[in-house]
Amino acid sequence: MNYSNVNNSLVIRHQTEQLCIEPWGKDSLRVRATRYMNFTGRNWALSEEVSTKQSSVEITINGNESATIQNGRIRAKVNAAGVLSFFRDDKLFLREYYRNYFGTECGESCCLKIVGRDYKPIIGGDYALTVRFESNDGEKLFGMGQYQQAYLDLKGCILELAQRNSQVSIPFAISSLGYGFLWNNPAIGKASFGKNYTEWRAEAAKEMDYWITVGDTPAQIVEHYTAVTGHAPALPQGLLGLWQCKLRYRTQEEVLTVARKYQELGIPLDVIVIDFFHWTRQGDWKFDSEYWPDPKAMCDELHSMGIKVVVSVWPTVDRKSENFNEMFERGLLICTERGSIQTYDFQGDCLTIDVTNPEAREYIWEKCQKNYYDYGIDMFWLDNAEPDYAVYDFDNYRYALGCALEVNNIYPQMYAKAFCDGLTKLGREKEMLHLVRSAWAGSQKYSTLVWSGDVPSTFESLRDQLYGGLNIGLAGIPWWTTDIGGFMTDDVDDPAFKELLVRWFEFAVYCPILRMHGDRGPHNIPPLSNKEYGGGSLFTGQPNELWSYGEMAFTIMKKQLDIRLSLKPYIEKLMIEASENGAPLMRTMFYEFPEDERCWELTDQYMFGGEYLVAPILYPGKFERNVYLPAGTWKNLIDHKEYSGGQTMNCQAPLEAIPVFQRMN
């Protein structure tokens, strides 16, 4: 084992492996390893410049036996077999899982021949990489993005590291032991937080790359993480009220009719959203002029009402698109490794634009600027951003940046970057926001508002969204939203659905963005056209405006919207905080009260910022629930009485309101 201090980094060479541990931000280390001669030089999510004072880094080399590197409160030790151990204030918190004859640090079996860094060569290519760590009993793990499952604590979970519709893979985990871990690798893979050991796997990689930080609180850990991966910018003005959307407004007149009715009812509307298939064909990226004859006039009228306009953009390109041949010849589309070149088959024979290619990013932005932005469209809804494949056979796709197995998970970030770069060139970066159906580590810096995807209209799904929203905030994404009521509804007249819709709306009032959307069945509205393409060819869902569900639901949602509007100044402050230190708006109870052990167990209530405790109703037919109040004084916003903390209360929850408590001190 050969240890050396190279430019304030600890470099270890042994046979064909090179290991590099370097200071990377406050109380943080970056760890890389490769069997190639050199590292790739790619920083992936670690995109921000960081400064670490030379005096704060200490490297100690003990001959050929061991070496340590310390950066502030974190220290890494490498033994004579290359086994890594990590310490916070000299207390061990993480060690590679290694069971071999020489180098095993624990007293368990050493004859298994299991190593901590396991490279399996891919014939003719790179490596499938597995990295293992010892498991800590009693540890809780959070973050990792958004997974559609009924677990907030991820200990014991197996998580696919892959982007899918409604699944957002952001491989950053926060531990109850006071550290954060970023798997700095966009490869398809798996994270297994087992009881016996933890395992990270990349299906294809040229090198191992991860980053570790330590802190006293989850807030400190998130602050360290967003300092190296980027902060969300300041949120543009006028977006914190109601967003109105449905599947789908088919014509310019339908959009204007809805907006005018909101105006007549005196209900403020911040944003209206134009969903998919307003276009001619996928990949044309323009309005179908038959149904959208004057987009500029439409935008002008909406702007005069104080309403911003969002339009849906898909990355899919139909072979019959006017842009297909040029993009295909220029190599701007994702390639398949075998069989058909088709990658998407909904309403067309489609390929997908390769936004890892800078030329492709410029191409799609130029089309969208000319056909949308120049008409007055304010923001873009980057749908199908995973990208959504007809079949998630990741081994069959290749990008300019590499094979999908190696780089796929960064795709949604590059999709948002295309629009960020375009708007920045126009000097309009302070006005941009992108509604995106997926994200990766660091996507927050690209003005990304993640929504939770095409989720079903069920109470089970509502619970999943709560867990997903809290965990994605811990993974650095403060801008997050859902389809109120879920996306997939069979019967809008079902009283059970209306109950769900109201409960979901009450929850959404205390989310970063309040957005009405959904595909409301039944699909018995005839299309506007018999053509197999164009803006009139596709079905639409039932109406989805506040007044669409009867007087009782309308009255409740209108009152809840008034509450939301009264919270705007408060939410603006939370957005500023998010842009400064990465603090999520939706916070787990332990984020605000890390010293309270009870708060580490709670999964069905949360803090909206530091002031409001929110206890959503997550089951049908429930009109009361228990709420735990941490230390302090709390005001119940239903009965307006004050209560002392340190107790669990049974609270009334009529259909008109969910339990919300304001923190008084």
Write the layout of secondary structure elements.
Layout: E1 2-6, E2 9-14, E3 17-23, E4 28-34, E5 57-62, E6 66-71, E7 74-78, E8 84-88, E9 91-95, E10 117-121, E11 127-134, E12 141-146, E13 158-161, E14 168-175, E15 179-183, E16 189-193, E17 197-205, E18 208-214, H1 218-229, E19 242-244, H2 252-264, E20 271-274, H3 295-304, E21 308-313, E22 316-318, H4 324-329, E23 335-336, E24 350-352, H5 358-371, E25 379-382, E26 397-399, E27 402-403, H6 404-407, H7 411-425, E28 434-436, E29 448-451, H8 459-474, E30 480-481, E31 488-489, H9 495-508, E32 514-516, E33 519-520, H10 551-566, H11 568-581, E34 586-587, H12 589-592, E35 606-608, E36 612-614, E37 624-629, E38 633-636, E39 642-644, E40 647-652, E41 660-663
Parallel strand pairs: 19-20, 19-32, 20-21, 21-25, 25-28, 28-29, 29-30, 31-33
Antiparallel strand pairs: 1-2, 2-3, 3-4, 4-18, 5-6, 6-7, 7-8, 8-9, 10-11, 11-17, 12-14, 13-16, 14-15, 15-18, 16-17, 22-24, 23-26, 26-27, 34-35, 35-36, 36-41, 37-40, 38-39, 38-41
Helix pairs in contact: 2-3, 5-7, 9-10
